[in-house]
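My current task is to audit a protein record that another person submitted. I have pasted the whole thing underneath without changing anything:
***
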Amino acid sequence: MTALLFLEIALFSFAWKKWIIFSVEKYFHPKYHITCIEQTSPTKEALTSSFFAEALDLSAERPVSKWSLQPRALEAKLLQYPFMKTVKVSMKGPQAVSIQYEVRAPLAVLADFHGAWIDNDRMVFPIFPFFTTKKVPRFFLGWRSLPENEKPVRFELARRIMQIAGREKITGMALDWVDVSKAYQPSLGEREIVIGFKSAEGSSMHYIRTGPKKVDETLRKYACLLEKNPDTVKNNLTCDFRIDELAFVEKF
């Protein structure tokens, strides 16, 4: 009985000592220091590993043990960046952090700000220094002075115009920008939407003026105008469709 008790005490003492050693070692031994960041995203290498290292404060000069990192806390850090849509962090082996993430896809340039994109969720996020520019239309929404409850309405109007422009067969011209900043002005004389189209070569511009309730009709008429008069693609034009049954077309 005494021998068995002695054996149990010895085993407990050995296990306790090993646990103490591991408890200290796991924070300081180099074999547990993070040396690798593995990232996966639907967009190949959307962000650099150096971005993640800086964002998560991981540095070779200041080694960090995997045991001192909490994946949920790291995810919360990354989600503070407005361009990050989803993120999942996990530990992979003794020295690697695995990051699965998706960045937001820009719908348009938000021209009310310098160097900003806006996505389908109305999230505004910076282009630089994380991304390079993409060929997407510009939205002028009057975002800076717009009350929060009006932003969804203004955004949906601009997005609908973009969708209609993509649906109509507008020969030789591509949507360049949409200005709905004055779409709901109290004064009828000031109320307008201006849509900019650019020729494929970029040599000519067409400015289309219309009202918020006439967008579908206006873009159908504009597509018809280009179809019947293909040479208009070569000219800079202003087309005003705000008055019912009339269209004012002027070269500039």
